[in-house]
Write a structure and sequence with these properties.
- The two termini are 24 Å apart.
- Helix 1 (13-25) packs across helix 6 and helix 4 runs parallel beside helix 6 (146-161).
- The chain is built from 8 helices and 4 strands; from the N terminus they run E-H-E-H-E-E-H-H-H-H-H-H.
- A 4-stranded mixed β-sheet has the order 2-1-3-4, covered by helices on one side.
- Helices cover 52% and strands 8% of the residues.
- The longest helix is centred in the middle third of the chain and has 23 residues, at 84-106.
- It is globular.
- With 198 residues, it is α+β, with helices and mostly antiparallel strands.
- It has 2 domains: 4-77 and 188-196, Glutaredoxin, CATH 3.40.30; 84-184, Glutathione S-transferase Yfyf (Class Pi), Chain A, domain 2, CATH 1.20.1050.
- Bound molecules: glutathione.
- Glutathione is lined by residues 12-14, 49-50, 62-63, 98.
Length: 198
Amino acid sequence: MTTIHLYGFAGSTYVRSAMIACEQLGLDWDLKPLEFGQASHLALHPFGKMPALQHGSVDLYETAAILSYLNDLAEGAPLIPTEPLARARMWQLISICIDYAYPALVKATFADDTSQIDTEPADRCLAAIETLVKSGACLTGDRLSLADLVFEPMLTHYLKTIPGGEKHLEGRPGVTRWYRDVQKQPAVIAAYRESQSE
Ligand SMILES: N[C@@H](CCC(=O)N[C@@H](CS)C(=O)NCC(=O)O)C(=O)O
């Protein structure tokens, strides 16, 4: 199989989602550096973000599109549920992550003084996801889906960055259980190992 090239920094939450997907799907992939903000970067991603993907003649950017593409490369496209409501919930969760959780759990933490961050928007996201999380080990049920891959890096970033970390999960048994379980997934562990070796 032609190697999949992911462009970006391993510390980026969205890049990590794509790395976990490649690991989970058993794809042949590598992580390529970006000359951030330079013409070579903008040629891959006109909005100057990451990740971007190259696979043979295919160029792609935007995480949800990349994840969907990676999933379809694998036998049985296992990371998108086939049951209609579970599939809709997966896209709902991904939309929540991109539109609300990324600004609240990741972008907000880029402040100089993390003790001054307003945690209300993050709490609102966690409350919404608490009502949607299923009783299985994964967000949409028993099987890992793209939603798990998008949310895990964001929550990990938030808990590691803000003062008090895991106390923000108190009173949220569904998210707490899910987070504990998803961190044991071999693909998640492998992607973190890759980040540390960067
Ligand atoms: N809509 C994009 C957002 C990607 C994004 O915001 N990536 C972050 C890293 S996690 C980034 O490139 N940040 C650099 C910047 O905003 O300058 C996607 O879904 O891929």
